[in-house]
Amino acid sequence: MTQGINTEEPLTPFLIRATAIASLGGIIFGYDLGVISGALPSLTFSFSLTAEEVESAVAFLYIGSILGAIGGGYACDVFGRKKAIILTDGVFLLGSLVLAGAPSYGAVLLGRILMGIAVSVSAIADVAYLTEISAEGHRGALVSCNEVCITLGFLLAYGTSYGVTSAIDFQEGWRIMFGLSGILAVIQACGMMGMPESPIWLDKMGRSEEAKIAWSIIREGEEEEADYEYDDDNDSGDKNSSQQTDALADLSNSNNNHSSDGEHYQPPAYNELYRNSQTQQDDHDTNNSFTDHSNTHVENASTMHLFLIHYRQVIIAAFLAIAQQLCGHLNILNFAPEIFAQVFYGSAYKISSGEEDEGADAEDVEQNQEEHAKLIAPTILLGLIKFLVIVFVIKKVDVYGRRRLLLCGIGLITSSLFLLGIIFAVNDEKDEDASFDTTTQILAIVGCIGVVAGYSLSYGPLTWLITSELFPAHVRGRALGASSILSAAAAILISYTFLSGQSRFGRAVPFMIYFFISFGSFMYGYVAIPDTAHCNADVDGGRSVDETFEQMWFWKDGGKCACCWRYCCCCFGFGGVGAGRTDALSEVQMEHCIMKGNSGDQEVPKDAEDQ
User: Biased-composition ranges for Acidic residues (predicted)?
Assistant: First the structure.
């Protein structure tokens, strides 16, 4: 029996409208992440901020993001996708009002935390809603629209920053920049009022009649077909419906995707994994009795035990989540005006430092406004490059493969950071207060573009795509949630390294630190990260994932860090994984389970028992 919307269903006006409204969350998301870049100069001027206070204004959004990542999935499941989106819009609006009317620096930090919470929850709710109202034939494209809208939000933020800085009082411009996101939030909330709740969520909550009505609205009045979708007359249908709602519930919980620049990209691969697992589930249950038996126990295991079982996936996911922030891309975007000030004027704080601006007269302020408008203009180019590269990756990721794009992107980031480090080091030796010559200015802009393009080619969309493809459904949500928190924590850390690092160690030092981190990331990615295009962790007990790992030297026979990981398993009492077993696993049995990535109830080979 077919569940959900028919895969050959045409793209209806309703779906187009729903996608446009839900994807507004992506635009708000990207706008609030990108607007800080243009707002920092006037914010710094207004409150006479130090370098550390400027860095905190950036970092506090990611503190809020961690809070949102912890509770966002719960809110989405308890209140429903529609209500979660509307509540998120309310938090966006509250945050924008707090920021726009902030009387002090402390109020600014509070507003940034609120925005961080909203950004994180939006990453879950918007994509979960789009996924659950879409036909399978359109789902990937519709969910990808949200990713594109995130980059459009960045571009809108940079364009708005330039326009506001050019036309409005310099000291108050940051209030308008922050406040505009509230207008977008109101528009989305009003639009969502007229949308139905996700029928998948309604059915999961036992509200089948409401789910039928929602399907009917989505199908634009095709009630007869909607009734067929929820025919409860045969047990097979009940089983498949339950599997579908469980899978999509896990999907909604797992879309805590922080990327980027702190971006929270939502991988289209979720949809492929969902479709593949559903079409093959019946045969899999019949022909693979061991996997069915073990999954019962594994799904009841604790999160720690599950992470220990999937240790190779955990290591890769943690690496990607942290490395994507430590490459410094976040600081290139957020502090772009300061970087361009160093390139064109010789000192980032010659213009914006509060200490130097305290005695500024009206003529000085007007000059600051004109100069900052020129410094913000190149960020529009960065936003455009980011948008174009993301569109390219979405269209070509299955053609070129995850691994190739990831390594190419990290390589581009590494070489661009090296270029920036050399440029600033050479210029500092000449005269730190002098502007760069024309050729060096062009090279510096090329270096910044290279970092942004490389990130959008690799970490931005692929971190969450690769992570989602490596983990099976019963742990995928927790894996992505943990990755989101790690990514936000790394973003907080890296935000405090740029201005402070330049002030204490020289302008070139942060770039060179990011370069060495990125170079190490490239080397690790080359030996340890496989191409996951053909991995399906939900079929055959994740055999395709294991086979992919075994083809790589680094992970062959369990991996070069297997001994350390087995020691951790002993410390955490791995024997508890097999829920329902009364005997603890022996060390040899545990080793076998860890090496194969399966649960403690797998049949242990004879040679392992003999040992």
Answer: 224-235
